[in-house]
Amino acid sequence: MFGCKNYQKMETVNSVDLQKYAGVWYEIASYPTIFQKGCTNTSAEYQLTDKGYVKVINRCNKDSVDGIAKSIEGKAFVVENSNNSKLKVQFFWPFKGDYWIIGLADDYSWAVVSHPNRKYLWILSRTPVMDESVYKKVIQLIKDKGLDPDKLKKTMQKPI
Questions:
Q1: DSSP secondary-structure letter at 75?
Q2: Residue 42: inside a domain, yes or no?
């Protein structure tokens, strides 16, 4: 068919230990989205709850690393039979979006998150700066997953 791409099925990591995944992640790069327009110094914090979901707090500064601080809270629900590698994230009821962990360092120092339709992609790190050799490794993983690294925009982060 004309105009159709032959994508391989999106694969997630085998399993995720949510205890290790919890905490603060810094956005190193992402596909630009309307809901993150103008965001810099972007981070996401995941907090385990005893209520059957993970609390999500996304933060950024608008237009510069010292710009106006913005945040939004949501909930992430583990998708059944996914070994915690697929979540449904909800910021506004009743809408939930897919959050698929498609790459994860053994030591949980970096993660790659996407969506089954490949329209969204985030490279996350436990630190605001990712070593260039690690970044290149992550870019190769992205290519291997059938995603386009040329669409990525690096996120401006304020050094800690």
A1: E
A2: yes
* Cβ neighbour number for residue 20 with a 10 Å cutoff: 10
Instruction: Please tell me the total count of domains within the chain.
Output: 1
The residues, any chain, with a CB within 8 Å of residue 40's CB and separated by 6 or more, are: 60, 61, 62, 63, 64, 65, 67, 155, 156, 157, 158
**Is pTM beyond 0.85 here?**
yes
d(CA 113, CA 78): 14
Q: Kindly report, residue by residue over 72-83, the tens digit of the pLDDT.
A: 999 999 999 999
CB neighbours of residue 107 within 10 Å:
8
CATH code of 87's domain: 2.40.128.20
Q: Which two tokens stand for residue 140?
A: 């190769």
- Supply the range of the domain harboring residue 93: 18-154
pLDDT at 7: 55
4 in a structural domain: no
